[in-house]
Amino acid sequence: MLPPVAETSDKRSSFEVYANVIRALMLRDMRTRFGGSYWGYVVVVLWPIAHIFLMVTIMIFRGMPSPMGNDPALFVATGAVPTLVFQYTSREAMKAMLVNRPLMYYPQVKAFDIMVARFLVETIKGFQGLILVIIILVILGVDPTPPDPAMAVSGYLMALLLGLGVGAINIGIMSVFPGWLWAYILITVLIYLTSGVFFLPHLLPEEIYSVMKWNPIVQVVEWVRLAYNPQLGVTIDFTYVIGCAFGSIWLGLILERFVVRRYV
After folding, report:
1. Which end of the chain is less congested by CB atoms within 10 angstroms, N or C?
2. Under a CB-based contact definition with an 8 Å cutoff, are residues 214 and 241 in contact?
3. Which residue from 239, 204, 205 is spatially nearest to 219, judged by alpha carbons?
4. What is d(CA 34, CA 13) in angstroms, rounded to the nearest whole number?
5. What is the pLDDT of residues 161-182, one digit of tens each?
């Protein structure tokens, strides 16, 4: 039986090896996207930000007021940021498996490692994008500070968790049906158009709104907007949204264990 010191050293060594694998996968991920340079990673971060402010420009050009009564830029940002975080995180996970599949010939690299590395990159990228959006809003003279910062941050984190969970599920589905990547892109377009980025869903007829609420992203957008306007007049089913987030992560891990390892 090895002494406790040696056992602790072995465990630390194993962790260091795993951490180095994840670090190498993350650096490769950042380097290989958009032209094979680190500037490509900057483009990846700025792309959704450009999307958000393009929509803001269109609203201002057409003279469309904010339905929440605040600045149009803030209205679009509170809807687009959580929606895009979910979309990019859940979609890019599948691309990671396609791009990095040859690395799995190395015994140190497993499918789960590729998932973890991409999820960490998307998490870092998402927070960097959020910080840049806040900075740009401040430059434009818009106060991005919500009356309830804790609710705003928790809503943003829930969008990220949903993206991680659905991304893990997507990897499981794509390992069996490779064409799922393109089908899911079409689904994300539908999600984006119906999640309330450019309108307030609760102002629609109750029959339509009650169906839309089954989409957890609709409630996440309302979650974030409620932090900016406590008088918005919406009710968030926090248990349902949190259950969807952690339930999707649990299902994604089950698929990784019993499906991805078998087919990838």
Report:
1. N
2. no
3. 239
4. 34
5. 999 999 999 988 988 888 898 8
At residue 261, the 3 state secondary structure works out as: helix
Contact status, residue 55 vs residue 75, Cβ threshold 8 Å: no
Residue type, 209: Y
**Residue that is written with structure tokens 């840049």 in the block:** 132
Tokens 């979609």, located at residue: 91
Condensed to tens digits (0 to 9), the pLDDT of residues 60-119 reads 777 777 777 777 888 888 898 899 889 988 988 788 877 777 777 777 787 788 888 888
Closest alpha carbon to 93 in 165, 153, 178, 151: 165
- What single string gives the DSSP state of each residue in 72-100? HHHHHHHHHHHHHHHHHHHHHHHHHHHHH
Q: How far apart are CA 164 and CA 158, in angstroms?
A: 10
pLDDT digits (tens, 9 = 90+) for 202-253: 999 999 999 999 999 999 999 999 999 888 889 999 999 999 999 999 999 8
Which residue ranges make up each domain of the chain?
A: 14-263
Q: Residues 87, 191: contact at Cβ < 8 Å?
A: yes
